[in-house]
Design brief:
With 297 residues, this protein is of the alpha/beta class. 29% of the residues lie in helices and 23% in strands. The strands form two sheets. It has an eight-stranded mixed sheet with strand order 4-7-6-5-8-9-11-10, with helices on both faces. A three-stranded antiparallel sheet has the order 1-2-3, with no helix packed on it. Helix 4 links the parallel strand 5 and strand 6. Helix 2 packs across helix 4. The structure holds S-adenosylmethionine and zinc ion.
């Protein structure tokens, strides 16, 4: 049976030490490697494994204001259909995973990279816990400490850590049976390192139609042309496309929600607030996601 902390989180997360890359084990209030490197577990339950010397200047991740806007927007349910789809995808990967047979002692691990304030991995953990023989460990990683702190406070069935996922995810090689990436940075070689053979990466990207009318109304940044082709090309090393789904549906956004879209995204760095562009009205727009399921080769 998996170890649980008093908050109900699975304690058996398969981490490595950022200094020597040996296995980290849970001690009282800290994580320790066999070489004696030790990392405090914060009161909220997260761990910051990104040492200052691994931080790249200028790469900070999302600010608290962006994260708060994202949380307001997500909690108003606009991407609920995407979440439902991801719960189904992850559930199906776990049901078909042979981890229970091959490594019963460790159990399965579901990782979200660039998890932000925790909506997807935290909700997936809540909805999938207790299914099957052993509850997998659900882990969210983000470079923003504010993100990890917010996520950890809200979602008690997942574990969160600070990491630069383009550099090192600080998970053991081959330990992430399912890796989830929703609108977040990708690194093919690090993804291929942590996902074992027969494991899965689920990558969600916006299609060109995503929020198109809203982006025009607010002058937000466009979705990069050929983004999907670009992402697929970059992940070809180590992964094969097993499934591709499009999820599209209309949305009516209040002026406040529309402004939160601006505040939570990269456009917030380039624009000052301009709600006048919406005239206080709601706006009809569309969500359009592409969900790629990639199998580790
Ligand atoms: C567009 S947000 C998506 C957040 C979340 N997946 C969601 O959809 O709600 C991108 C996230 O990636 C994080 N991020 C950016 N660069 C990163 C890096 N190198 N390593 C880890 N996280 C990173 C940001 O802090 C931010 O939370
Ligand atoms: Zn160490």
């Amino acid at each position: 049976m998996s170890a649980m902390d008093p908050g109900g989180r699975n304690d058996a997360w398969p981490l490595i030490c950022p200094v020597c890359e040996r296995e980290l084990r849970s001690g009282p209030g800290s994580l320790v490697c066999p070489s004696g490197h030790s990392f405090d577990v914060a009161r909220e339950g997260y761990v910051n494994l990104l040492p200052p010397q691994h931080r790249v200047r200028g790469i900070e991740g999302d600010s608290l204001a962006m994260l708060q806007a994202r949380r307001r927007f997500l909690e108003s349910g606009h991407y609920r259909l995407l979440l439902d789809q991801l719960v189904a995808e992850v559930g199906s990967c776990l049901a078909h995973s042979d981890v229970a047979r091959s490594d019963a002692a460790r159990g399965a691990c579901v990782l979200e990279v660039g998890c932000g304030e925790g909506y997807y991995i935290g909700s997936i953990a809540e909805r999938l816990k207790g299914r099957g023989d052993a509850t997998p460990v659900f882990v969210g990683a983000d470079i923003s400490k504010s993100a990890v702190r917010l996520a950890s406070r809200r979602y008690h069935h997942a574990r969160f850590l600070v990491a630069d996922v383009r550099r090192r995810i600080y998970l053991q090689t081959g330990s992430a049976n399912v890796l989830l990436d929703v609108f977040a940075p990708r690194d093919a070689s690090e993804f291929a390192r942590v996902v074992p053979p027969s494991g899965t990466a689920i990558v969600v990207i916006p299609s060109e139609a995503h929020l198109a009318s809203l982006r025009t109304a607010l002058g937000l940044l466009d979705i990069q042309e050929d983004k999907e082709a670009h992402v697929r090309e970059r992940l070809r090393d180590g992964f094969r496309l097993a499934d591709r789904k499009e999820l599209r549906y209309p949305m009516e956004l209040s002026a406040d929600s529309a402004m939160d879209v601006m505040r939570m995204g990269p456009s917030s760095r380039h624009r000052t607030e301009d709600s006048a562009a919406l005239g206080g009205d709601s706006i009809a727009t569309e969500a359009a996601f592409v969900i790629l399921r990639l199998e580790r080769t």
